[in-house]
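Q: What would this chain look like folded?
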Amino acid sequence: MWAVLFVLTMAVAAPVARAADDVPTPQPRPARPGDPPDASPRENEAEKGAASETGAEDEVGLPDAGEAPRPEPRPEQPGEVKGENKPPADAGQTEPSPKPEARPDRPGKDEAPTGPGKAEPSLMPPPRPAEMPAEEAACRVRLKELGVVFEERPQLAEAAGCSVPWPVAVTALSKDVALAPEAVMNCATAQRAAEFARDHIVPKASAILGSQLISIRQDSAYVCRPRHGSAKLSEHAFGNALDIGAFTLKDGRTVEVGKASKRAEGEFMLAVRLAACGPFTTVLGPGSDPDHASHFHFDLAARRKGSAFCQ
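A: My prediction, written as C-alpha cells:
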C-alpha cells in the first residue's frame, strides 16, 4: 500500500519539476517612445558631480515621465560663454567692422601741392578801384604845393605780390631840386622825400658844403624784389622806399654816398643820415651791410608808433 502511494507521488512530482525549470526568465520590455532610459552608474556620477558644483546636490530632480531623453551635454571649452549667458545669435550682435586701410598723408593747409603740373599759388593783387581814394587825391594836392614834378602811372601789380595801386613817376622834388632818373613810387613816399629834401638836405648842403643843391641821383625806387637774404618782399616792391646815391651842387660838384673825399663831404653825409631817422622809419647806408655801401636807403615801413630802424 505504501509502496503504491510512493510510486504515484513520484510520478506526479516529476512533470511539475520539469515544468518549473521550463518557465522562461522575464526579460526587460523594450523601451517605448517617451519612457526615460535607465541611468547608468557613470551617468549617476556625472549628475552628482554637476550638482556638487552648483551647491544643490540634495535637489537633483528627475525628468518627467513624458520627457524625451536628452543627449549628454558636451564639455565646455576654455573661454566659452555658458549657454544660459550666451546671447542669441540674432540679438543685435554684429560682426566686427574691418579696420580702414591706411591712406597716404595729404598736404596740410599750410603745404602747397608739389609735383609736375602743380603751379605755385599766385599772389597777384586785386585790381584797384575805379575811383581814386580820397587820401590819394589829397596826397597829390600836397605834392603840387611842394613843387613836386610827377606824372600818374597805371597800377603796378605782379604775381609775386608786388603792388603799387596808385603810383606816381617823380622827376623833381621841388622847382629847384631835380630827381634823376625818373623814380616811380607811391605818393606818400614822394611827399616824404620832397619834405625831407626841403627841410634837411637843401639847408645842410648850403651850410656844410657851401653850395646850393640842384639834383639828387636816385639808385632805386619801385623794384619788385625780396629783401636781401630773405623771402619777404622789400619795401621797394610797394613803392615805399627810395635809395639815394649822390648829390649834385650848383657849383658842379657831385658828392657820392660812401665816397666822401673831404671832411666837409663826410660831415654832410652824416648830417643827412642822422636827420633821416624819424621822417623815415628805416635808414640804412655805408656800414650797415655790404648791400648799402654806396647809397642811403630810406623807407616808410610800418612800425610801432614813434619807432624807427636806423643803422
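The first strand starts at residue 149 and ends at 152.
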